[in-house]
Amino acid sequence: MHRLLERQIKRYLGKDLQHDAEFLAFLEVVNIHYEEVEKEQRLMQNALAVNNAELNAANKRMRVQNTEMTRTMLNTLSDGVYATGTQGNLIFMNAAAESVLGWQEHELIGRKVHDVIHHLHPD
């Protein structure tokens, strides 16, 4: 018997009904229903998990494409551009900024830009 059904019977009736044939037949039908519902729930959970994984993968691909497109656009500018995170750490520097500042992006990524650049180029 389905564990949830068995627990409900014991809770509401206060006993096991293993000797009443009609009631046991009824319980068997109800038990089949419980199992079908549980199977449908598992199928829905699996479907939702698959959909969630697909959406996460699509979002990740879009973020990568967006980042690549933004980087490409900023690298075509003749003006130097760099970006920092909320703590002032470099997260991007275009080729023009590398030329103007004399640093390559990989040398500054993650470093506090103000601490490095301000002392070399106070203007």
Architecture overview:
The protein is mainly alpha-helical. The protein is built from five helices and two strands; from the N terminus they run H-H-E-E-H-H-H. Strands 1-2 form a two-stranded antiparallel ribbon. A hairpin with a 5-residue loop joins strand 1 (82-84) and strand 2 (90-93). The longest helix has 55 residues, at 21-75. The radius of gyration is 32 Å and the shape is rod-shaped.
Quick overview of this protein structure:
The protein has helices spanning about 5-15, 20-75, 95-100, 105-110, 115-120, and strands at about 80-85, 90-95. The protein is mainly alpha-helical.
Topology:
Layout: H1 3-13, H2 21-75, E1 82-84, E2 90-93, H3 95-101, H4 105-108, H5 113-120
Antiparallel strand pairs: 1-2
